[in-house]
Each structure stands twice: as structure tokens, then as C-alpha cells.
# Entry
Amino acid sequence: MQILSFPSRADWPTLMARPVQSTEAIEKAVAPILEQVRTRGDAALAELSEKFDQIAYTGFPVQEADLAAAERQLSDELKTAIQRAYQNIRTFHEAQRQPVEKIETMPGVTCWRRSVGIEKVGLYIPGGTAPLFSTVLMLGIPAQLAGCKEIILCTPSHHPAILYAAQLVGVTNVFRVGGAQAIAALAYGTESIPQVYKIFGPGNQYVTAAKMLVAKEGMAIDMPAGPSEVAIYADETAVPAFVAADLLSQAEHGADSQVLLVSTHKNVVTTVNIALMTQLERLPRRDLAAQAIANSKAILVETQDDAIDLLNAYAAEHLILSVENPEAVAERITNAGSIFLGNYTPESAGDYASGTNHTLPTNGFARAYSGVSLDSFVKKITVQSISQDGIKALGPTIEAMAEAESLLAHKQAVSLRLASLQ
Amino acid sequence: MQILSFPSRADWPTLMARPVQSTEAIEKAVAPILEQVRTRGDAALAELSEKFDQIAYTGFPVQEADLAAAERQLSDELKTAIQRAYQNIRTFHEAQRQPVEKIETMPGVTCWRRSVGIEKVGLYIPGGTAPLFSTVLMLGIPAQLAGCKEIILCTPSHHPAILYAAQLVGVTNVFRVGGAQAIAALAYGTESIPQVYKIFGPGNQYVTAAKMLVAKEGMAIDMPAGPSEVAIYADETAVPAFVAADLLSQAEHGADSQVLLVSTHKNVVTTVNIALMTQLERLPRRDLAAQAIANSKAILVETQDDAIDLLNAYAAEHLILSVENPEAVAERITNAGSIFLGNYTPESAGDYASGTNHTLPTNGFARAYSGVSLDSFVKKITVQSISQDGIKALGPTIEAMAEAESLLAHKQAVSLRLASLQ
# Structure
């Protein structure tokens, strides 16, 4: 880690800048893939899957027999773990339901909101080195709770835990297809894959570019994405080995992972660094992690106020507060995806099984975006009912405003009703 | 209106298709505007404002004296109306606050969500024929309730009601600038206009294209936009003159407004059409409205089930249910922006003053998007705290899942903690 001692506030933006990724070249590569799938459907999916993933696209969803086989391939220990995680995630997301509350804004004028599950959603789970069955839970459980009628999962992965998790969350169909072409299939529909109304899930730069391009056309997506990241604020109450392990668990995601350590104590930075080097040696993915750590920073600041300001300016995806009174500090955090309090709350708890969602805003997007939740899978429809007395009371307000906006048919819609009630 | 009697379900998608607008040419025109403002700031704003809007961009926000003058220019009647609307909108949005609820997902594992206002938001209010001060209320009130620290309003309009509403909602600064260049200023910041984290508000095709382009770069926006639209489902309990007035109040927004009438009764369609023609003649904006009406459709269906299926397939921005038992019908609506029940609930109530938000998903986006609400101005940050007993109970679950995903540093972050507790 690069250690930066007491940098001036003027230098913070530069220190904390994420690497800017030029997306133009990738978008140019992805746009024709989208167009091919949009115009030629399954035929294009088959060609592109063969070309990019060496997968023969069958045009059929994964069958019952394969789902049953997947379940048999898993150890009982792993199935029990997945079920425990499922239960915790379900409990936390279940509590996010909002009951309908009718509000009488003035006598005779009643307004409310109904939450309705998005009818068709698409979940994308990448292939690659880590089979992200945990992400199937994180996206599938709120989809299931929201009452989404069709939950379509696309993945190039053959890992049985992905199929097992898909069954638990009630996925309608799993299709073996990956990359930008899978996003295109979900966005436009093909002969085999239904068009969905919102697309969720992580992926490489091609998948991300595909999601952003279909979003520009109006498709709803979970959120923009960037490399995963953690910031840890540690004081002398932190256990250095735990802090090091948390930094590494972020760093192993990939060489582009962002890792930031903030402290008011030089000796904390020093002891964490020593623990980091020791633990790094023992990691199977140490090459990836070492690159991420080499690009990462430990920043020494003067005061807790400095630390909090810096963390709010950074807007980390994951923020671990290994400090005294972490809950009080958390109250002062305005920008973060998810916050982990104290020495016994590692990021990996939230990544897998504590109950919170691990699909979170990266790249500073936490300034405006929330992580995935039950909200992400519902629309809230407003409803209103006005009585005759209500329109009598409210009508003149509407008439005055419509007239001032020169929208006289809007005024007339009220005036006619008022006249009928005289 | 074109009257279509009992079209087959196979023909519905074509009947209900929105006009597809090619955005490519507009994006090509807008991209250099964004780039100029991004690289040259206020100098570019001044040039572009002069060129497109014949406004001299001063580089200063609207001053106190101008705000005070605006208030003096409004009639007491209009001020009272705006205050009444403010109160109702505030009451409805205030009820959308979600209290923090700590969930113990298992013993010793506590998770919750905190709602935090987005620190800096930008509101755009277009110029043009209708001075949309009502939109200042619809965007500014939830921003104010959310506790957004900076609320920046850009508008080319000089209408005093816009400045009056801006003061009511606590806008930080108003800048006199419009078009794609205003969106660019909010997205990138200039010497005079602060960069914001989320951009809201309606506009012409250039403004919409600018919002979609900055969204592709990760900027948060309210939602994608298209022409405004209403669908009305009417039976023989509907008052034809009211239905006609509601159709026209949508149609007067512009020639591209979408208007759809659905009924199971031919005589309802006939009598509404007669009332429509009579009322149209009296409208000052009759040319715009007549064009929109000419492009609009009345669809006769066999049964209530057909009507509901058709309305759900259309996913209207505004849906008026002028039918018997409208609340029961509303329960079966899965796709709509906002629903208006019965004969005395005109769309213009929700447009101005009943309390609901009028920034709603158009163009079928209601399948996945909600209208603007308090939620649109907050991020929800998840927080978790795990005790020593909690990590002992949950740890093995995390270890098993991390190992199965080949993320061994994630596992190690737990194993180290468990070892320390033995």
C-alpha cells in the first residue's frame, strides 16, 4: 500500500479518484452484438456464444433433470450454508415491505401508493473464476419477495451451486448464455428468451457496457457498475490482522479492486501493513490481490472529522468502521453503499449471509445510488380518489395553477366538474 | 380519435405502440454541447445560451432582489393556490419517510437501513409555452424533505411563479440557463454551477438526450422520458363531458401527447367523442390538442378482463378509471404511473395539487419505473453489526460459501475472527 501522511484537503480528490476507464472502445465492440441479437435472435445468440464463450447455445432453458442433478452434486455442508444465507437475506428483505397507507391530504382528497412487483426481470450471473451463486440469492430473493412473475437467469456458468440457488429463489428459467449477448437477449427478447423489464447483475466490462447501452434506450437496470472497493477506517481499537484480512478479501476480487485504509494513527497503518504482507503470502489468489494492494492507499489524517469527511468524499461501496463507538461514527456517514461496524463484522458477512444485499454502488455512485433491495424489484404506483366535497375544496387551487401555466384544458377538466356540483 | 372495435389480442402490441423516436441525430447534436461545457465551463454556457436561447448567461445565480420582486408580481390568488398545493404535496411525500428498523436476522447479527438525502441535486425546469412552476413543487418538495443540502435549479424561464415556488421549496440557487447545456453544467459543474449527484426534470428532446448521455456515464437521473400520455377506462357510469375534458387536458400538452380511451360500451365512445369535439373548439391551444386527438385511439373491448389486460400491456403514465368500483379495478392494475379513481378525480388534480407527484414514467416505462417520490432523493445505506456470538453462529456459513466461490481471503476474514474467539 502507498502510505500518504496528512495530505492536504486540496489533494483529496486526486488521491481518491478512481481509475477512469475509457468505455468508448468497448461500446463500439458491444453495439454490433446488441444489434445482432436484436435483429436475428437465437441464431445470433448461438453464433456469439460459440465465438466468445465456446458454448453451444441450445435455445432451451436448463431442464428439470439438470436442476435435480445440480442439487445432488452439492455437499450437505454447502447446501446448509446456502439455506442459512437464504433465510437471513429473506428476513432482512422481507422487512423492507411497505404497507399501503392512505393519506387524506385534505378532506375528501385521498392518495396512496401500491407496491407492485415488476412482472419480468432478468438476472445475469457471470462465469469466470468465482461461481457467484451468492449473487443468485442477492438478486433472486428480493425478486421472489416482490412477486415478480417471471425471473429469467442467464449465465455461462455450469456450477451446480448456481442452479441450486436458482431453484431456491424460484427462478422461472435458467439459460446458458453469457456476455453482452445475454444482456441483449434479456433486453430485446429472442425466440427462446423472454424480453424482461429490468436487468440486474454483475459482469465484465462488456456486460457493463451492454447494460448501459440498453439503459440509454430506456431499459431499467439495477445500477451502473465499476470495480469493487472497500474503505476501512481503523483506530487503535482495531485488530490489525482482521483489518488486513478484510482488505485482502476485497483485493482478491481482481487487480482493479480498490482498497483504502484511513486512520488517525500511524502505528495502526504500520501494523496492518505487516499483517497484510504475512496473510498475502498464504493466499491462492495472491497475484491478483497483490496487484490490487500495490495500487491501494493508506491515508493518515489528523482527526476523526477529517476521516469522516474523507470517507464521505470517497463514497465507498463497502465501509468498515473498526473504531471505538462505530455506530456513532456511522451516523455521520452520508455516502457509502454498506457499513460494517466493529471488529466482528467482516465485509464477507454482508457478501454472503448476514442478510444485507451485496449488490452495491461502486465508483462513488453511492453519492446518489442505493444498493439493491426489495425496492429495486417493485414499482410504486400512486392512486388517488377525490370525493365531490374534495374536488369542491381543491378545485379552485387547480384552476388557478392551470390558468397560470396556460393549460386551459387542465382548468376546464375541473371547472366542468365544479359546475356540475352547483 | 380513431375508433377500433374489438381488435384481436394479436393486434394489441401494434395498436398500442408508442411512436418510435430516432434519438441518434439528436444525440449527435447534443454530445458536442456536453463536451464543450465539460471542457470550457461558463464560457461555453455563455456561448450556447446566446446561440440557442438568446439568453446572456451572467455566471451568477438569481439574486435576492429578483426573488423578492417575483413574489410581488404574483396575484394573491395564485400564491394561495401554490401554498395549498405545496401543503398537500408535502403531506403526501412526508408520509413516505421510512423509519429505521433494526432487524436481528439471527441472534447477534443486526442489520438495518438508513435513508440519507442525496447531498447535491439538480432540478431542470424548461422554458417554452407553459411555465412549469408546478414541477418546481413536485421536485423541490421531496428534495427539501429528504434533506438535500444543495438544490440547484436551472431554467431559461423568467416566469415569476417559478422563482416563487423555488423559494418555497428551499432551492439553494437558481441559474438562468436552459437546454442540453444546463444538463451538462449540472453533470460536470462549471465555475458558477456546482456539479450535482442526481438530475431531475422534464425537457425537450435535447434535454432528454443530454440526460440519457450523462446517465450512461454514471450520473443518476430521475427516469427516462417520453411524451406525456393518459389512458381512460370508461363505462356507462362515466360522465362523457368529464372524460372528454380529461382527454383534452392531456392532448393540450403537445401534438405528440398520447391519448387512449378504452371501453366495453360503444355508446360511451360515441358520446365522449361528441363532447370532445364540442370542447376542443373552445380551447386556446386547440391546434396542438387537435393533432394529438387525431393520432389517438378509442378501443372497444368485449369484457372488463380484456380492458384490464390491455391497460396493463399499455402501462400508461396516467390512468383514469371512470368505472363502477374503480378501487377494485385499480387493484388489478399492475402497470401504470398514477391511477385516478372515479368521476371527480381528474388528472389535473394530480398534476397540480392533490399531493401525488406528477413526474411519472411515460412510454411504457411504468412497467419497471416508479414516479418521483421521496425515495428518489435519498440513498438507503445498509448497516450491520455482528457480535462475537453472532460471528460464531454465522461464521461457518460464510466460510462454506466463500470456499465454494473460491474466494479464500473472504473465508480467511472469518476464520481469523473465529480462531481469536476460541
